[in-house]
Design goal:
The chain has 16 helices and 23 strands. It is of the alpha+beta class.
Length: about 500
């Protein structure tokens, strides 16, 4: 550790914003700063980010958080990075300039390309190696699209002068010098989301590279999630060791202290992501879930996880705010929804860009079902919140089938967990306890924990377990017949949404 270092920092580079949070030894937040970046929608189904804006925002929030708490780089024992996964950047190694805007995980432009890779509809062609179906969600198709459509990109990639990375790689490369010697690496959790890494070998797989026509020279080196990679070479972190990288959902698993087999967490953010730790065992899903790397600490064997990914959760609240004007602030959704006792028979399936786990139907589209003259804006608001809870149950049911484990409690985090109505309905529809920790910024906390472990700031997992404090829990209070009736109607609504879009 740096002499006198009292804290650990975490860069949390998310889908809509970037934050820097400083944590103390008890996992408490000491300082924080956040800044949103632009969401770019150049065509229907396309979602992009400006990677340079994200980099500038990262430096700004680091300086803001440290300045507000009157801290300097010398106060930090280490820094970890956690990031929106799958979002793909391709940049020029010589100049540091992106060759194209970053293609975001929600983007669906690669569907036709993936049909080519799948051949005769074999969307599970590589699931045994990668744990993933062929879907627009993952990075391989996005990178392949860039190499096809950006002039000169393929030649640069083959020469090793165009570098691919998810946001962790992009940020670390710039923090460690950029064109002047930047380190080009990614950790096993982010690599497992590219659809190019073999889950067993933890290495880039030649068969996968060939299938997507991607040159090895543009790919980062794969490293553990918790180890010292370098000392940052740019202000305001100059000299601080960067010692962790984790995809955001894996970071939240670590931040929630889910280190034992069968422990699970759900993060309610832009999307919704439920992960269950399966230990050192690779569990192949038969129910539409993803098998992914949970984390790897130093030289130890990796832990794996089953994951269910929901594309639209908090984003639906933002959509009814911005596109419908139903509310003027996201925080108003709960108050509006509590004006009615139930959903009035209204169901909202937010399949704006298809359905993710466990359905994996790229042609699904959003629908509102069950409308009658009785329905009000309050019923619609309630249906918006319930949609997240129903989608979580879809995923959890698949997870229990695959793992053979029955979940008794669900640890929750993310921006939506401040919504008491949603959390109670989640406990009711799952028939399981829902637990919210004192620190709900568990994504950043997980990155900080992994960095702190790498430099000895925390001595081991027991230190992290002792930091876990439950702030509130919700117990199921719904009778079984009502639960079954509501969920049956939800499943009917989902079936109405699938295969809606027919591409030209």
């Amino acid at each position: 550790m740096m002499a006198g270092a009292k804290y650990v920092g975490a860069i949390d580079q998310g889908t809509t914003s970037t934050r820097f949070i400083v944590f103390g030894r008890g996992g408490e937040i000491v300082a924080s700063a956040q800044k949103e970046h632009r969401q770019l929608f150049p065509k229907p189904g396309w979602v992009e980010h400006d990677a340079l804006q994200i980099l500038a925002n990262t430096r700004e929030v680091i300086a803001s958080a440290l300045g507000a708490a009157r801290l300097t780089a010398r106060d930090l024992a280490a820094v970890g990075i956690t990031n929106q996964r799958e979002t793909t950047v391709l940049w020029d190694r010589r100049t540091g300039q992106p060759l194209h805007p970053a293609i975001v995980w929600q983007d669906t432009r690669t569907e036709a390309l993936l049909d080519e890779v799948a051949g005769n509809g074999q969307r599970d062609r590589f699931r045994a190696k990668t744990g993933l179906p062929l879907a627009s969600y993952f990075s391989a198709g996005k990178l392949s699209w860039l190499l096809r459509h950006v002039a000169g990109a393929r030649a640069l990639a083959e020469a090793g002068d165009a570098l691919f990375g998810t946001m962790d790689s992009w940020l670390l490369w710039n923090l460690s010098g950029g064109p002047s010697g930047g380190i080009h690496v990614t950790d096993v959790t982010n690599a497992s989301r590219t659809q190019l890494m073999n889950l067993t070998t933890l290495a880039w797989d030649p068969e996968l590279l060939a299938a997507f026509d991607i040159p090895m020279r543009c790919l980062p080196r794969i490293v553990a999630s918790s180890q010292v990679y370098c000392a940052a070479s740019i202000a305001p972190l100059e000299g601080v060791r960067v010692a962790a990288m984790l995809g955001d959902q894996q970071a939240a698993l670590v931040g929630q202290g889910c280190f034992e087999v069968g422990e699970a967490k759900n993060t309610y953010g832009t999307g919704c992501f439920l992960l269950m730790n399966t230990g050192n065992r690779l569990v192949a899903s038969r129910s539409g879930l993803l098998t992914t790397v949970a984390y790897q600490f130093g030289e130890s064997a990796p832990h794996y996880a089953l994951e269910g990914s929901v594309a639209v959760a908090g984003a639906l609240v933002q959509w009814v705010r911005d596109n419908l004007g139903l509310i003027s602030a996201s925080s108003e959704i709960e108050q509006l929804a509590t004006q009615v006792d139930d959903n009035g028979g209204v169901y909202f399936v937010p399949a704006f860009s298809g359905l993710f786990a466990p359905h994996w139907n790229g042609s699904a589209r959003g629908i509102v079902a069950g409308l009658t003259g009785f329905a009000t804006r309050a019923h619609l608001a309630r249906a918006v919140l319930e949609a997240t809870a129903y989608q979580t149950r879809d995923v959890l049911a698949a997870m229990e089938r695959d793992s053979g484990l029955a979940l008794e409690e669900l640890r929750v985090d993310g921006g939506m967990v401040v919504n008491g109505l949603l959390m109670q309905f989640q406990a009711d529809i799952l028939d399981a306890q829902v637990i919210r920790p004192r620190v709900i910024e568990t994504t950043a906390l997980g990155a900080a924990y992994a960095a702190g472990l790498a430099v000895g700031y925390w001595s081991g997992l027991e230190d992290l377990r002792q930091n876990r404090v439950v702030e509130r829990s919700w117990q199921p209070a719904m009778n079984g017949s009502e639960r079954a009736r509501l969920y049956s109607a939800w499943q009917k609504a989902v079936q109405r949404s699938v295969n809606w879009h027919e591409p030209p």
